[in-house]
## 1
Amino acid sequence: MIIDELLARAHRDPGAPTTWTEDLRLIGALSPQLAGLTVPADMSSPGAQPPALSRPRITAVVLTCDEQERVGDCIRALARDVDEVLVIDSGSTDGTLEIVTKQPVPTRVVHATWRDDFAHQRNLAFDHVREGWILMVDADEVLSAASAGTIRRGLALLDHLLPGIDLAVCPRILDTDDVGGLYTDLPRVLRAQTALRYRGRIHERAYDRQGNAPQSVHLTSLFHHFGYRPAVVEAKSKLDRHARLLDLCRGQEPENPKWIFYQIRAEMNAPTDPARSRELFERLEASLTLCPQGSPDYIADRRQDTWALLCELALRFGGADEIATYAPLLDRAQREAEAAYFRTVVAMSRALAMLSRLADDVEEATRHNPRSTVRQIGRLHELHGLLALASGRYDRIRTALQAALDHGAGSTLAADMAALQRVLADWESPQAPGAPSLSRPTSSRPGTN
């Protein structure tokens, strides 16, 4: 039996009584190379009893600089999952370090000057942790109460299933700002004896010596991330810091297309007119030539995201042909949801434009048909109203409906409008407190601090 089959069986039978089967359901997904490996014999035989899993040593590594608001909550939430917390502090002047020393989890503090390089700060952990697992946690992240203990259980299982394999473990990280975002692909857990190291002053990720990303396991353990609430972003000048670090990355690696991607993505946080959007599109599209087939992941790991961002930019200047070029690439990369969105927006825009033109044609026909009957003109007015409703030209509907009723027609349009009024009467505005937002602006992900 291979691991993928074992996981499928565990998820298919949630009532399975064995402890390790319950722990298997903590694994949400894993790389195809790992999924195809053979399951240890003590877990694959019929009626297998739970194997005795070793308790892994886990060290949480927390980067700090004036993090007194959240760091206590961050460390306390890890009490069931880690043996110690290594705090790498880059010059806190508030109460951060005092709070750290008062937590119920054993802590060590390493003082390290900030060098405008998040990867450097994270990699310092490997000089101080020699065994077990290293769990990277941002100081403004808190493990959910429901996930307490799941990281230790998940890593114990991985030690048994995949002993000694160099891999990255990705928990789920949920933004708590008012626009939200759930991230499942951030490499936050590595073995202490790994050859992997983080690279990138910002948007840092783990790579091997050749610059390729490791195989990965995705856990269902959930962290809440508080770092991108507007007040926090402003107080810590995060956007200015991110821009400075990206400039440094571009200066050091001008031929690395990922930094072009991140800079253009950051610029899209501000409104861009169609001309500027096309200019950004052309610059981003040109960056793809810097990422030929076979490039290491450190160069190529934002290629698919670049296709998606090109489609976003094309929407802003009405680039239907450009979307027709890049949406199929997203499809082939198994990013069908994004591809379907971009294709559908283009098709919808074309359909709405056609409906709008038809509304104009029908309205014109109501004025120049002296030989038509009153009933026929009434039907045209009603059709005009229905087309206006379908194309979003709501200012025309009332006039069209009244004209249709005056000519003995309009029952269908009147019924549609009455049904719409009933729906709107029960509608809860998306802007109401606590209600979900309909869209998320492009922003930096957690893990980039």
Note: The chain has a mean pLDDT of 90.
## 2
Amino acid sequence: MRHPSRETTTDLNGRGSVLAAADGPVAPTQRIAALDVLRGFALLGILVLNIETFSGPAALHDVPLGLAKPAFVGWHATLDLVIFAIKWLFFEGKMRTLFSTLYGAGIVLITSRIEARGPSAKAADIFCRRNLWLLLFGLIHGTLIWQGDILSQYAVIALLFMFPFRNVPARRLIVLGLAIGVLGGTLGVAQAMDVKQVLSAERLRTEGAVALAQGRAPTPVQQSAIDDANKAKAAEPAEIQRSIAQGRRPYLESISSRTAGYFGFVDMLFHTGWILEVIGSMLLGMGLFKSGFLTGALSKATYLTTALVGYGIAAPLVLTGVAMVAASGFTVAAVTRWIYQPYAVEIFAGAIANASIVLLVVKSGWLRGVQAALANVGRTAFSNYILTSLLCQCLFAWGPWKLYGALDYYQQIYAVLGVWAVNLVLSALWLRAFTYGPLEWVWRSLVYWRRQPMRR
């Protein structure tokens, strides 16, 4: 009978060895169930918003304006509005923030387990190798599969900033993470969405329209703002068709534009400062893990209170924004003012509230079948993340269906449900026979430079 603290592995050269647990990844029996459930929940939830990028062109980030098949019109106008409100109340930004938070938690979990069994130098070595390999995987994903990759962001941020913070007390990490995430995220969104310019142009157009209504000529800058808006509106149909044609190109023809899009996306995140949202999320996750929040160690009352406070902050901001945007006829300026300006505040509040509800369910032992299904996805999150990109790209762009730009807004949900079904079923089936997801196994084997045990 093997000693429980040791496991037999085979290194990448095929030589058998006995390896201390400190030198290898965590065994399945040592996993924290609450983290797996949260990770699966976040991963599935991210697709609710990413599907908008996979399925067709849009004028704004996760707001259905400038679509080939316009939202909020026809018989499904009310349905579209309800879906839009639900997405922004529970999913937009919240799932991405939760996923980033869990990556931060993983940094503390991994390094603390290694340091508990050996010198910190080994933890630093494994930490760096882990993130360098993740950076490579992210670059491959971003350039060859989908330009919206987040893995490379996590790797770069972890390598540049996170290791020295692993020993900072939980309370300081939570405060620092929220401060950087909310304040930095607010400034980053303002830069990325060009909030100042959009609202200034709206003011000039409004003043020009008032002048015309009063029989006066608009000033040159007011007339220029009006002319720019008219030109953009006139050019929109042709731009949509061009984007659809580009989005449906065969795989090999699309590589160059996808690579350019990926590096442009990363450049935008860093030069606008929007990347501070991710940095804050990861620091927050480190603090929430160390406090016991993310492992379900706190009381049920704590999770319930946190959820109520979080939704109490997020829900009024989101629902007011949706109502005001709908009343304005979904103009870019209204979206900028009512949805983008409070964005960072509501996504952090909503993300923590979502996590609180999931952890309350876990702690209470409710919905065990659902928990198990989510945990399976969470244990294979890396593989499912890449699989989701491949499925969506084949469905909308590379495969015979060419659905890019072909779905109504509400129909995107059908694609989400279909991909979820694949994630849930394949994860469950795979883990019946194997210890890790396929890409998790490759990643761990490369990090430790030994072939890890694969079959259960």
Note: The first strand starts at residue 6 and ends at 11.
## 3
Amino acid sequence: MKLIQVLGPGCQKCKQLAERVENAVNELGLACQVEKVEDIAEIVEFGVMMTPALAVDGKTLVSGKVPSVEEIKKLLSE
């Protein structure tokens, strides 16, 4: 099961990314765990300097922007 993590302190863009991730997961019908990581120390451990960011199974795929639902679906399908 994939672990999808939305990294960010809880700002509006972080919430928007979390919403788009949920939409992408639902549209793809993926069995995965989605969690928000808001602790700055934890976010830094991912090597992320700009939020929001998206990580899948511990690997950062996007940082510093909010990709579209379609872009997220492509990333999750790889």
Note: DSSP finds three helices and four strands in the chain.
## 4
Amino acid sequence: MSNIFGFALLQEQVTEHVSAEIAYECASMERIDNYGTTPIERLFGAAVVLHTRHVRDSWFKQVMFVTAVQAEAVKRRRDAKEWIFIQKQAQLPGWRVDYIFNVYGGRIREPNSGIPGWRKLIVECDGHDFHERTKEQASKDRGRDREAQTSGFEIFRFTGSELWRDPMGCAKQVMDWAEKGI
């Protein structure tokens, strides 16, 4: 029998419950490809979802993984400006990107807080096997980044090492970007 009571006991009980729930979520996220196709992509996608659900009080009501067609359709929903839409394995001309995050800027936090309109962020999870292995690949990646930026995208690249060492830190950087200007 525990020697704690009241709010201290309630805190312990809730912590145990939430901890078990998150452990179950993490175990299932690792095995399925809902959040990405490679292990580092799944790790990053799962970290974004868990960060939004459990780590901080976000201004966004929901994170939703969508296709490009679904993203355009869902943006027309009345409550779409309160969501984050993530396209995984999105196709751009000559380039398949790991993720495109879509958020609406200039929304609610403060009057005149940012430019109204949909903002787009490309997130690349760069495993050593495919990125920066050679100078040519690094040059190709940077050229694509510049091309995407001229088309209105912002870009974050995370190395596999960064993702394995601190998945929630990487997710936090993306969520900080998403909340900038809302």
Note: The chain has a mean pLDDT of 83.
